[in-house]
Write a sequence for this structure.
């Protein structure tokens, strides 16, 4: 009887260890988007592309920015293993000056929190 209980315990332990090995993994093409120097009022939309290189579906639960001038948009559906997705970021380009903002991504990936960055500079149009 003790052997049967021991075998069941070892078997269950092995199954739970195997189940925990499956995890989503988020790999960004780049963790920084450089707007470069752009003119005031230009298109402020940029994209962070990523791939789920893990072996479980990737669920992005929250994407937030360091200020109200930057609006991130996360994918609504889970990203399956091996598939790609994107996080869209819209910066308000009606502000002249340097761009230095952070976007925080929270997911079920093996690294649950990632911080992405946008940078660049907005110049006033010539002659204005």
């Amino acid at each position: 009887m003790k052997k049967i209980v021991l075998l069941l315990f070892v078997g269950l332990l092995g199954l739970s260890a195997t189940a925990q090995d499956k995890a989503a993994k988020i790999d960004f093409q780049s963790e920084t988007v450089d707007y470069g120097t752009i003119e005031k009022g230009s298109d402020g939309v940029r994209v962070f592309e990523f791939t789920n290189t893990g072996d479980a579906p990737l669920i992005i639960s929250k994407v937030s920015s360091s200020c109200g001038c930057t609006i991130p948009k996360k994918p609504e559906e889970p990203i399956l293993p091996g598939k790609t997705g994107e996080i869209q970021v819209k910066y308000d380009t009606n502000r002249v000056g340097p761009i230095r903002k952070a976007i925080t991504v929270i997911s079920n990936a093996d690294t649950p929190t990632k911080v992405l960055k946008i940078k660049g500079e907005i110049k006033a149009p010539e002659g204005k």
The radius of gyration is 21 Å.
